[in-house]
Amino acid sequence: MAKKKVNSVLIFTSVHPLHDSRIIKQVNSLHNAGFDCTLVAPWASQEKGYPFKEQYFNRKSGFLGRLIAQLIFLRTAIHFKWAYIHFHDFDTVPAAILLRLITWRRIIYDVHENYGEEVMIREYIPKPLRYPLRWLINSIEWLGVIIIGRLVVVVPAQVQRFRQWGCKKIALVRNYASLSLAPPAPVDPIRVQQDGYVLSTSGQTVNYGALMVLDAASILIKRGYPVSIRGIDRFEGSASLKDLILNRMIEENIHNYKLLPRVTPQAIGNYLASSSIGLSIRLDTPNMRHGIPTKLFEYMAYGIPIIATDVGYQADIINESKSGILVPANNPEALADAILRLWQDAELRALLGNAGREAFFRDYCWEAEAIKLVDFYSHS
User: Fold this and answer.
1) What is the pLDDT of residue 45?
2) Nearest to 306 by CA among 356, 256, 234
3) Residues 6+ apart with CB under 8 A from 222
4) Do 66 and 15 fall within a single domain?
5) Helix/strand number for the chain, H first, E second
6) Is 231 helix (H, G, I), strand (E, B) or coil?
7) Distance between CA atoms of 347 and 344, rounded to whole angstroms?
8) What is the pLDDT, as a whole number, of residue 1?
9) Inside any domain, residue 1
C-alpha cells in the first residue's frame, strides 16, 4: 500500500462517465482548494485538459458489469492510502461498507437520488417486485449511512431523512450550474422571430416528460403554430421510448419536433445559446418532487425564460426566481398554451429571462455550493 497523502482524494463512480457535470464541478472545486484528486469513472471522456488525475474503465453491462465495477473500486481504494474516498451511486454502497469496516477510512457517500422511490417508477421492474426491492434498497442504504457516516446530498428532504436515520455529518451541496457557464450577455429575446427554438434538455423518459413535450408539439401543429421544439437526449433513456417517439413523429407528421442525439454536458451551451424558451418537464412522482433539475440553472444563466411543471422543488425555484411559467404535470394542452404565450410575447420572455439570470448570479450558482463542499472536507 502506498504512503498516505494528507489531502489525497479518490472520487469514484460506477455509473457516470468522466464528463458528468456534477462530478466535474466537485472535483475541480476540491482541486482548486488544494486537494490532490483522482477521478475514476467508467468510459473515457472526450474532454481534455482536466487539472486533476483521471482514470477510466470499460464497464460491462448487466450484473457482471456492476460486480466488476465494485471490485475495481475496492482495488483502487485499498491500493493507495487515500485521505478521503468519495463515491457516487447506490451500487457502490455494499463495497463501501466493507471497505469502511476493514480500513476505517474516511468515506463520503454522495447521494444523488432517492433510490428506493426510483425503483417504484422503473417500467422494466415487474410491479410485484417493486415493494420488496424498495425495502431491500432502503435497508442497504440505511446500513451504509450508519457505517459510512459522511454524506453529501443535493436536496433538503435528504438531510431530514438521513438525520432521522442517525447520520450527523451531512453536507447539503445543491447541483447548481457554474458561473463559467453564463455567457457575457443573455440570449436575445427577439431571436424567436428568426431562428430560435424551444429547448428541452431532459433525458428521454416518460417521467422527464418526453411524451408530454411531443404531445404539445403535435397540438401546436394542429393549432396552426408549428413552433420549433428540440429535445436533447441528455442521458441514456429508454431505447423503446425513443423508437416510439421517432415513429410517432413520422406517423403523425410532427415535423416541428427534433430529437437530438446524446449531448455531453460540456456541449449543452451550444444549444442554450440558440434557444428562446427552456422546458423543465417532470411528472408528479415522489422522485421527481424531491429532485432539483440542473437545467433550471442552465436556462437562468443564459437568460432563457422557463416553462416548468408545477412539481416539487422546481416549482418553488420558479416561483422564488420569477424566471418562468408553471404548468400542471401531464397536461400537454397547458404546455402548448404556455409555449405559444411566450413565443408570441418578446417582452414577457425578456422579463422572465432577465429575472432568472439575476437570480442565478445572486442565489443559484455552483461557486457558493463549492464552499460548502470544501468546508465539509476540511472538517470531516
Assistant:
1) 64
2) 356
3) none
4) yes
5) 15, 13
6) strand
7) 9
8) 53
9) no
Residue 2 within a domain: no
pLDDT at 311 over 60: yes
Taking the C-alpha atoms of residue 84 and residue 89, their distance in angstroms, rounded to an integer, is 17
Please state the pTM of the whole predicted model: 0.87
Backbone angles phi, psi at 38, to 5 degrees: -130, 120
- CATH code of the domain in which 336 resides: 3.40.50.2000
Using DSSP, state whether 277 is helix, strand or coil. Answer: strand
Residues 329 and 186 in one domain: yes
Same domain flag for 334 and 370: no
**pLDDT higher than 80, residue 121:** no
DSSP category for residue 34: T
Residue at grid coordinates 458561473: 179
Domain of residue 222 covers 179-363
- Mark whether 373 and 283 lie in a shared domain: no
Residues 39 and 28 in one domain: yes
Is the pLDDT at 194 greater than 70? The verdict is: no
pLDDT at 106: 95
Q: How confident is the model at residue 63 (pLDDT cuts 50, 70, 90)?
A: confident
